[in-house]
Amino acid sequence: MSDRTLYEKLVDSHTVLHIDEHNVLLYADLHLMNEYTSPQAFSALDARGLAVRRPRQQLAVVSHIIPTHAESPRVIRDAASLLQATNLARNCERAGIRLLAANDPLQGIEHIVAPELGLIRPGMVVLCGDSHTTTYGALGALGFGIGTSEVEHVLATQTLVYRLAKTMRITVDGRLPYGTSSKDMILWIISKIGAQGARGYAVEFAGSTIESLSAEARMTVCNMTVEAGARAALIAPDKTTFEYVRAHAPSLDDSAWQDALEHWRELHSDAGARFDAEHRFNGQHIAPFVTWGTSPDQAVAIDEPIPDEAAQTTSEAAASLRRALEYMGLASNRSIAGTPIDRVFIGSCTNGRIEDLRTVAAIVRGKRVAPGVRAMAVPGSGSVRRAAEREGIAKALIDAGFEWREPGCSMCLAMNDDVLGASERCASTTNRNFEGRQGRGGRTHLMSPAMAAAAAITGRITDVRTLEEATQ
Amino acid sequence: MTRLTMIEGGAVPLPIDNLDTDQIMPKQFLRVIDKAGLADGLLYDLRFDEHGAPRSDCVLNRDDYAGARILIGGANFGCGSSREHAVWGLRQYGFQAVIAPSFAEIFYSNAMNNRLLLVQLERDAIDALLRSAIESPGNLLSIDLERQTVTTAQGERYAYPIGARHKRMVIEGMDTVGLTLDSLAAIEAFERSHFVRHPWARVM
Predict the structure, then answer these.
(1) What are the structural domains of chain A?
(2) What is the ipTM of this complex?
(3) Does A17 lie at the interface with B, CB-CB under 8 angstroms?
């Protein structure tokens, strides 16, 4: 067989049949569900008189609508949200699907929960009615988001009619500079290639910078690749991947593990594999990045000014910039650093993992959230929350003045009651700064956990590399 | 299902690049377990002010665009969240087609599954259609789905590309689940060998 990319290997190993030149019937090893993109799929299945074909290859989590107030047991007071949760429970009960409900100790955001339960392994195909399913590429699994009609298709058949993607490789070499993280790296890459720079492509990340990242840091990268329009994100599994999977999937015994390793070591793009597009970046040029606009590609390094309208190459880009700055209440050519903030949000499937919370705690420990700033920390899962409590992270955050909350998607998309008010400005570790995403009129600045922590302490968007000077 | 071979109607200009599905269908309309009532939520923050009153600066609130069946959008239309509610809302509002320079990927699949035609045209063609829609709101466009053309009231014609499968999905409607279930034997055969070769892929 000729040399293939990792993406092609994953698709080939899951192709049930070729439908035509552009479409295959793709097999899903695992399908994840939440309460808001699955109800209509279950109803449609019912209307057909069909059962869920492979209930043991599904996992459902209450994640998007759940309130995150620190109360036990957790109660969903909003009637419509409660209906979504009880409806999901009913659907799972009837079909025999495992559900992590509101008060399950393992409940959390689907993309945080699935890897930590050892359910994501190299070489798998994992689908979910949520665009950030690209996260799983960090472990060498092909993951991507689907719509509700497709959820129905997966429930009925355990397959998906899948349009093949083009392939792109993004190579990043060099050591990540002081004060930066994989979040800065992906914001920087998206700002370079644009919000549709990877549209239509399955992106494979490679290079020494990528290799140096932890499994969790890689998840942040693959999670946000969808914000460049990508259909999937992949990183070839290596020692870092294997160690993560081994630590989280103790059910694999030694012989199963050896077989798996033998297979997983083949999961890389062959030397002669051809990509439809290639980008190369020097990771040493990465700086702390912050979005200034309403699209994830509208970002600058913390020490750069907000772009000038005149410097935009197309009239569409100039129009987008004008619209975004008006919404954000900002102006061209001024520095993004120093912009006062009202809120801080630490969490989401992008940055709600234990490493993210460790980073935040290290920065805020012994300091105080700036007066007038409301700072929330929402762990990505019950497991993350408990780990943070064991490690003293929760205490450090609480002592600094953070709200320490229960897990969920929370103010990343504000489907629950964690919402920005009109014109409130938020330093956020999430993935989308769209108009109204965190609340109507709310102003979101995407950044790394370290940068959000620095903003919490100073009350302004602050270069975390100079935080010590700023707070002296 | 009824065949859909021609879409004729007014066109609403909405030239916003990266118009995401959060804007097309905001969060407060997602707390449902059915598909009802989503026309109300369509582009809500663009259409209504913070008190719920129609915004006079929104084209969708203008009488001369009432009843339009075609939306002309910007690049990367429908990016962001996978929520199919965005497509359901567009259909329920009365749109049968969106014309744009490019479409986001998950949105594209969702549109095909709901017979919302997506017409991808070059920027020049879009600009011409936008000018016409802005200057003459009453002008009708006609889209011939069989011949894959968009024709203006002045007789200008633009050809658009669409894959054979997607063309059929919009024109005829397609029971994708039903068709796949015809291949159930192939799926079962695949599963038998797949999990023997990849036992670690069975995770629960």
Answers:
(1) 1-287 (3.30.499.10), 289-470 (3.30.499.10)
(2) 0.98
(3) yes
